Amino acid sequence: MLMHTHEARLAALREELKRQGLAGFVIPISDEHMSEYIGSYAQRLSWLTGFGGSAGTAIVLRDRAAMFVDGRYTIQVREQVDGQFYDYCQIPGESMGDWLRLHAPEGARIGYDAWLHTRGWVSATGKAVAKKKIALVPVERNPVDAVWADRPEPSKAVAEVHGDEFAGRPSAEKRSEVADWLKAEGYDAAVISALDSIAWLLNIRGTDVERTPVALSYVIAHADGTAELFIAPEKVTPELEQHLGNAVTIRDRALFEPALGSMKGKTVAVDPDFGVAAIYQLLEEAGATPVAERDPVIVPKATKNPAEQQGHRDAQARDGAALAKFLHWLSVEAPKGGETELSAVAALRGFREETGLLRDQSFDTISAAGPHAAIPHYRVDEESNLPIAPGSVFLCDSGGQYRDGTTDITRTVWIRTEDGSAEPSAEHKDRFTRVLKGHIALAMARFPAGTSGGQLDALARQFLWQAGVDYAHGTGHGVGSYLGVHEGPQRIAKATGPQPGTGEPLRAGMILSNEPGYYKAGDFGIRIENLVLTVPQDIDGAEGDYLGFETLTFVPIDRTLVERSLLTADEIDWWNRYHAQVREILAPQLEGDVLAWLEDACTPL
């Protein structure tokens, strides 16, 4: 029976829990690869609750339920999930284990899908509830799937070859390095389950997940240099078979579980963050020894080779011209008062599509007018869509997927009135300029090799801190090469709390975002984001190796919001040099009114 309301779906799930003898069930936003973005077939939490964020978990008991989200989604969860049926819980302050211990009956059997959770989550939550004799039970069939009558099928789109001209290195060379690592560590094989790792290792891409060009599959890499690719047969083309060659055996994705079950006596590396609990369980049941080791592909993938670096520069230049056309359009149309958040999304998508090379957006565009700009991860829809009001702040965070690179850029602009009478307030300009100063400080940073993103984070916050304000998100994330827009292991964020990657040393070749911000709830928000490439620095007299950043993103920053008196001579020099580069890169791609707009936007401060 098709369920038409979230209340009815919740009731149907509870009936299924009774049938399976469970007192409760845990529903994360996740797939069997622990992906950030997941296919429609895996959107169980959205189907059940209506929540549209990218991170969250529900726990459903027979008589009570809760939604767990982090600080990014405090507002959104209340707008989308009915508080009649779900408690709102914010992590990390409120843990799932504590909530279960408080609300589940003693001795309760709480189900979980072992293909959707890490072994670490199972262990930590299991320990938290053990005192109340609550048992976490892996289910044979996900009870949400049992009641989701019209659940979509996984994508059947074919996998695509990612040419060496974009990849920069042949797959055989990458697999050989993985084999060398396995032999050096004394492992027989490694399970590669992260979809972007598989894509990078085999130089393949796909269209199975929106915003991330990956193909649903698994890889078992062996110490002898061979590999097995487990992928649905309909996704395999003769071109793919020829590309992979004899050293990669292509098997039906349905054979992945039996393959794990045949590894008796083998020592197998499994990433603890991307290898789900079921993989560990199957290996242990088979008599293999799974070892929690970081996926050997992660650091090489994050460290871009020269071809990937140049691809990013080319993609950023193309994308920058599309952004310039969009910002010109916005400057002309928005003051008339007829544009909305959604019309801006459509216009920007159109300018990117004019390149003829756009494959997809790299994430859902954050098009945020007025108070919505104060929600860092706001996502516009028909219900939330606001007009872009003249005389206000507008924030747009967006990105594109191109075969040669993945882009991510945020610009915050002042929407003028047609008569030019409305000016940004002193507060607008102060906050914008403090964010700008932090952005410049990070862009100009030089630091010894071995420095982590967590050590650099305060550079971007210092000027906001001086005014007694801060922002709640990280300052920078890694970015893939025609892959995930959020890519580890590197990260620039506060080094305290559960922030993965803040202690990861930055390496030459790593790409990160530089995106400090400021958000005044219910009023306005500011963020300035460019992508940067970590590069060696030649410093006279340097004692040891030093690194710094090469800026990759070139799009004008809105001078209307700058309080020039707050900037130092060095910061003004950075601004002028940056905008000279913007003009040099974008002007040859533009003409007419857009070119005139660019010239004006790039005049020195």
Automatic annotation (TrEMBL):
Task: Kindly give the Gene3D superfamilies that the UniProt entry links to this protein.
Answer: Creatinase/methionine aminopeptidase superfamily (3.90.230.10), Creatinase/prolidase N-terminal domain (3.40.350.10)
Pfam families cross-referenced by the UniProt entry: Creatinase_N, Creatinase_N_2, Peptidase_M24, Peptidase_M24_C
Q: Name one GO molecular function term.
A: aminopeptidase activity
Q: What is this protein called?
A: Aminopeptidase P family protein
Q: Which of UniProt's keywords are assigned here? A: Aminopeptidase, Hydrolase, Metal-binding, Protease
What are the residue boundaries of the Peptidase M24 domain, all occurrences included?
A: 312-533
The Peptidase M24 C-terminal domain, residue ranges: 546-605
Q: Which domain of life is it from?
A: Bacteria
Species of the source: Parerythrobacter lacustris
Say which family it is in. Belongs to the peptidase M24B family.
What are the residue boundaries of the Creatinase N-terminal domain, all occurrences included? 9-139
